[in-house]
TrEMBL record:
Root EC class: lyase
SUPFAM superfamilies, per the entry: Tryptophan synthase beta subunit-like PLP-dependent enzymes
Protein name stated in the entry: Threonine synthase
Biological process according to GO: threonine biosynthetic process
Length: 430
């Protein structure tokens, strides 16, 4: 499969090149040249297939033959070595738990998948690759874990100082080996802008092979489409009109859901649920796309002012505003509303949601007011204990720590503080 740049000023790319380069030379995001819907029989027989089989069938058109069939099957199997359960709250609302991986956030799937693709492409290559990644909380930990010890790959993680949770910070600053953390005096958007600038800096790219492990990178982004298929497999016999409420920040996840829909998955509607960083909510009302500096919230991983992937969503809907609006709703919620939702979910359903999932739950409730016949699945994108202070404070109950979290608790943070792009460049050239 070839990929083209959404800035339309760069040559077509192979999958391998798109993975190794991350961003196109014209600074555009890569997008697959074609999307062929899966045959109807695939969905009719989804109950007979394992998660790995579903995932392999869904993604192979974007990757074969550059990674051979058997290798791709192994990559998919190794990536998906944990559970993706749907938990029903009531007749209209379920949650899809995406936090059973090693770092307890949905990013584990994309990070593990990409690490293995890059490992495959790099096996006969003596050139080291430096993976740059900007994180507002969870991508960093997942990438650190997924790429730890991968031969020939160095990882540099940029995160906004003081704006990620304590556990998220531990996950991305304590692993050592080929993983380095840069603590940026700024916001997530500053981190993401620095990373994009680095890709276009000849002084850097002439000396090192840089790539991205954010959802910019197609190998990090595309595997996220699996989640929607896994939820469908668990729900399709019980419910029609399945709607997904996706807690959104950089918009990679909801956009991956739209790719699953393009592949033929019968998804009735999407909801992009936002905290007060709500550029897309405003866009769907005014048709004006006006990114703003991000505001710090308790759902910190969604504190994104200028989401990278909105351009991919525009591409899927061919920039047709009305068509997009038919398929996507978006709502925005304050921290107070999020905390009330966490308490409501706990009191009514005895379920502990993290702040991001709670925003997703609120999105479901808003949508269901107008569409009472839908079944809305909100994605529980991270485990609640990653946001221990907020969660324990809101529901007033101590939380047991899962083993994945315990394993980083006592470890010592190692990071380098930077403020400007020049600091990043000097660090990389050192
Ligand atoms: C827990 C959590 N929820 C939601 C999001 C938002 O996802 P996306 O950036 O794909 O919109 C993130 C960050 O990616 C996250 O870490
Ligand atoms: N919310 C993310 C921000 C980066 O998103 P990505 O999907 O583009 O990596 C995070 O947790 O870091």
């Amino acid at each position: 499969m070839n990929y083209y740049s959404l800035n339309k000023q760069a040559p077509k790319s192979t999958f391998k090149n798109a993975v190794i380069k991350g961003l196109a030379p014209d600074k555009g995001l890569y997008f697959p040249e074609s999307i062929s819907p899966l045959p109807k029989v695939f969905f009719d027989t989804i109950d007979d297939k394992s998660y790995s089989e579903i995932a392999y069938e869904a993604i192979k058109q974007f990757i074969l033959p550059e990674i051979p069939e058997e290798v791709l099957k192994t990559i998919v199997e190794e990536t998906l070595s944990f559970e993706f359960p749907v938990v029903k709250l009531n007749e209209n609302i379920s949650t899809l738990e995406l936090f059973h991986g090693p770092t307890m956030a949905f990013k584990d799937v994309g990070a593990r998948f990409m690490a293995r693709c890059l490992g495959y492409f790099n096996q006969d290559n003596n050139k080291e690759v430096t993976v740059l990644v900007a994180t507002s909380g969870d991508t960093g930990g997942a990438v650190a874990n997924g790429f730890l010890g991968v031969k020939g790959v160095n990882v540099v993680i940029l995160y906004p100082s003081g704006k990620v949770s304590d556990i998220q910070e531990k996950q991305l600053t304590t692993l050592g080996q080929n993983i380095k953390a840069l603590e940026v005096n700024g916001t997530f958007d500053d981190c993401q802008a620095m990373v994009k600038t680095a890709f276009l800096d000849n002084a850097l790219t002439s000396q090192m092979q840089l790539t991205s492990a954010n959802s910019i990178n197609v190998a990090r982004w595309l595997p996220q489409l699996f989640y929607f298929m896994f939820a469908y497999k668990q729900l399709h016999k019980t419910y029609n009109n399945i709607v997904f409420s996706v807690p959104s920040g950089n918009f990679g996840n909801v956009c991956a859901g739209m790719m699953a829909q393009q592949l033929g998955l019968p998804i009735h509607h999407f909801i992009a649920s936002n905290n007060v960083n709500n550029v897309v909510t405003r866009y769907l009302i005014s048709q004006l796309y006006e990114p703003k500096p991000s505001i710090q919230t308790i759902s910190n991983a969604m504190d994104v002012g200028a989401p990278s992937n909105f351009i991919r969503i525009q591409e899927i809907y061919k920039n047709q505003f009305e068509v997009l609006k038919e398929n996507l709703s978006s709502y925005s919620f304050t921290d107070e509303e999020t905390k009330e939702a966490m308490l409501e979910i706990y009191n009514q359903y005895n379920y502990v949601a993290d702040p991001h999932g709670a925003v997703g739950y609120l999105g479901c409730k808003s949508y269901l007011k107008e569409n009472p016949n839908a079944h809305c699945v909100f994605l529980e994108t991270a485990h609640p204990t990653k946001f221990l202070d907020v969660v324990e404070d809101v529901i007033d109950k101590k939380q047991p720590l899962p083993k994945q979290i315990q394993s980083v608790m006592g470890k010592e943070k190692k990071s380098t503080v930077i403020s400007t792009y020049e600091d990043l460049k000097a660090f990389l050239l050192e």
